[in-house]
Automatic annotation (TrEMBL):
It is found in: Membrane. It comes from the Eukaryota. Keywords: Membrane, Transmembrane, Transmembrane helix. PANTHER family: MULTIDRUG RESISTANCE PROTEIN. The chain crosses the membrane at residues 291-316, 322-343, 355-378, 384-411, 516-538, 544-567, 579-602, 608-631. Belongs to the multi antimicrobial extrusion (MATE) (TC 2.A.66.1) family. Residues 648-666 have a biased composition (Acidic residues). GO terms for biological process: xenobiotic detoxification by transmembrane export across the plasma membrane. InterPro entries: MATE_euk, MATE_fam. This is LAFE_0D07778g1_1. GO terms for molecular function: antiporter activity; xenobiotic transmembrane transporter activity. It is a multi-pass membrane protein. It comes from Lachancea fermentati (Zygosaccharomyces fermentati).
Length: 673
């Protein structure tokens, strides 16, 4: 049979011939002949029409799926409704072809990265079809399938084409079929490319410039965010000591609770930059939706706890008036927490795209507005509401922050990664929790350690409590600088991991750890040089001022270790190793640092100095251990994990166009991305 076919085809005019692999040089005919239809064969799958078109027969529209791209619909193509198969005597197919319009032009720009697909098929199947022995054919096909897995085939092709299409703004053109052995380009580029992490040249010098440009906007953003709780306390503090104490108790409760959702949002520090670096922009928006949906569901029980906080706080605080005022604050704050959660997630959505200055613009508007609203709702003689005006102002401010950032995405920048709402946001929450829970542990372990220090300092007397409150507030403010640098480093690391470039991720990791020393020394210098000025901001009592000034000398040294801790922890999140960071933080803080601080503070009567030596020693150990794992990771394992995370969303893109013969949907057993 093969001999007859060969002789018959040899008599056809050369200009009308097609080659064995399916792309004619002169007639511009796409032919997938001589290949048996197979779900595992990326070029001759049994495609099914998109559901929205209806019908059971395949049409020319399915050609776009052959190469993972979309063909622009043209009136010239409307008459081509299907490609037909010529039956052979044995029931097989001779040819499946579509003649494209003559207005198609040759395309000089060839996607050489996927050139090997057609060449490999030509090499393998030419020998198969020249064999008359059916058993020999089956053996050769089996050998070919063993030699190259088609699932891996399609993942590589789809990822390549998604990256090519996603990085550019394109306009549709007629299909351009190139010469033999090449995949046709479907679009013409009309504008410049976005940043290409797969081809970018990276050195320590260039990466340092990028890190600086990312970090500066983030530093100002985080510092502006720290103003809001301070404004709330200062506004209410003049109403009375009970109101001030109630706001402090409510603020501590909200800080501990919201840290849970900040920890969940840190999963986006891994997922979104990796997806963006790989060129899979659609997945960035899916991760945002999934994380927001997951966080809002988790928030429901916390909302009930806040609403009935008078019951829970009564076990901790015995003063009924204090509990009553704090519970009023928390009941109103319930309405603002969802906006804060969405703001934090949306901010990381933009950071993954390298957009770090959006938060500055939003907070520069919200910070003065928050001061105005707090003063008006608390102290204004006509519309002032007194104590409850403070939480109302906070709720309004949170929603304003979210809506302004959302408007920035819609009208200015950042929507390139948004592909609309999807039901995939409600899937793979178990996989998301594998990153979210370690992130929660990492943040809560450190935040609670500061709260424990403040609690223990109350047993030393009022002077020590006042000094500890001032020092811990200052340390938390200075912590925002290394934290911003760490977020910038983690974003770059995850971008390069997503692009499959471990050598660039290593440079970003080493630069991040190196910058922690510089940032730590900067914070140390500020605290030591400005200790007297800082002390006089918080108190007018000479005894308290003296104690704060002396304590800041020690805290300045601790800030060096805290900077290493903050940046190394962020780099671990960028590498997707939150579990390591959570184990280290939880173990060192609560099995070593806090017990050592209590021992030095009480047993050796070092009081606050003993507490800070203990917590500083823990930060040093944590920073060194996390820094080691950042600098000497298993890059192969990290890349394999990132590859597993990408597979689900790539497979999920087949929801609209079914590539299989079954009606099965993506299930929860697949990977997260």
């Amino acid at each position: 049979m093969a001999t007859i076919l060969t002789k018959t085809l040899s008599q056809v005019h050369p200009k009308l011939r097609t080659n064995g692999i399916g792309i004619g040089n002169n007639h511009r005919r796409i032919s997938l002949g001589f290949l048996r239809p197979s779900n595992r064969n990326p070029l001759v799958r049994k495609y099914r029409r998109r559901r929205r078109y209806g019908g059971d027969h395949a049409s020319f529209r399915s050609l776009d799926d052959d190469f993972g791209s979309s063909v622009a619909h043209s009136p010239l193509l409307e008459d081509i409704d299907e490609y037909m198969a010529e039956p052979l005597e044995d029931g097989g197919e001779l040819s499946r072809t579509v003649s494209l319009p003559s207005r198609v032009s040759e395309t000089p720009d060839i996607q050489t990265d996927v050139d090997w697909i057609l060449q490999e098929h030509e090499r393998r199947y030419s020998s198969v079809d020249n064999s008359d022995d059916e058993e020999t054919q089956d053996e050769l096909r089996q050998t070919s399938e063993d030699a190259l897995e088609y699932d891996d085939f399609m993942r590589r092709v789809r990822r390549q084409l998604i990256a090519d299409v996603g990085r550019r703004k394109k306009r549709p053109s007629f299909v351009s079929v190139s010469s033999r052995g090449s995949v046709p380009n479907i679009y013409e580029i009309v504008e410049g490319e976005e940043e290409d992490f797969k081809k970018e040249t990276v050195t320590f010098k260039s990466e340092a410039k990028v890190l600086l440009s990312y970090s500066l906007p983030l530093i100002f953003t985080f510092l502006l965010e720290q103003i809001f709780p301070m404004v709330c306390s200062l506004t209410v503090g003049h109403l009375g000591k009970n109101e001030l104490a109630a706001v402090s108790l409510a603020s501590m409760t909200t800080n501990i609770t919201l840290a849970v959702f900040e920890g969940i949002s840190t999963s986006l520090d891994t997922l979104c930059p990796q997806a963006y670096g790989s060129g899979n922009y659609r997945s960035v928006g899916i991760h945002l939706q999934r994380c927001i949906a997951f966080s809002l569901i988790v928030y429901i029980p916390f909302g009930f706890i806040w609403f009935f906080s008078n019951y829970f706080l009564s076990f901790v605080v015995k003063e009924k008036e204090l509990v009553y005022l704090a519970s009023k604050f928390l009941r109103i704050a319930i309405l603002g927490a969802p906006a804060y959660i969405m703001f934090e997630n949306l901010k990381r959505f933009l950071q993954a795209q390298g957009i770090f200055d959006a938060g500055i613009y939003v907070l520069l508007l919200c910070a003065p507005f928050n001061v105005f609203m707090s003063y008006t709702l608390v102290w204004n003689s006509k519309i002032g509401l007194g104590y409850i005006g403070a939480p109302i102002a906070m709720v309004i401010n949170f929603w304003l922050m979210f809506f302004l950032l959302l408007l920035y995405v819609i009208y200015i920048d950042g929507k390139r990664c948004w592909d609309g709402f999807t039901r995939k946001a409600f899937t793979h929450w178990k996989d998301l929790s594998h990153l979210a829970i370690p992130g929660i542990v990492m943040l809560e372990a450190e935040d609670l350690s500061y709260e424990i220090l403040t609690l223990f300092s109350s047993y030393f007397g009022t002077t020590y409590l006042a000094a500890q409150s001032a020092v811990s507030t200052t340390a938390a403010l200075m912590y925002m600088i290394p934290f911003a640098v760490g977020i910038s480093s983690s974003t770059r690391i995850a971008n390069f991991i997503g692009a499959g470039r471990p050598e660039c991720a290593r440079i970003a990791s080493e630069l991040g750890i190196s910058s922690s020393i510089f940032v730590g020394l900067l914070n140390c210098s500020i605290l030591i040089a400005g200790r007297h000025f800082i002390a006089r901001i918080f108190s007018r009592d000479e005894e308290v001022i003296l104690l704060i000034s002396e304590l800041l000398l020690l805290v300045g040294v601790v800030e060096i270790f805290d900077s290493l801790n903050a940046i190394a922890g962020s780099c671990l999140r960028g590498q997707g190793m939150q579990v390591i960071g959570s184990v280290i933080n939880l173990t060192v803080y609560y099995l070593f640092a806090i017990p050592l601080g209590i021992l030095l503070g009480w047993r050796f009567d070092m009081k606050l100095f003993g507490l800070w030596i203990g917590i500083g020693s823990g930060m040093c150990i944590i920073g060194l251990m996390e820094g080691y794992f950042v600098l000497f990771p298993n890059w192969n394992k990290i890349l394999q994990k990132a590859e597993m995370l990408r597979e689900t969303d790539e497979d999920g893109s087949e929801d609209e166009t079914d590539f299989s013969d079954s009606d099965s949907e993506p299930n929860e057993t697949t990977s997260l991305l």
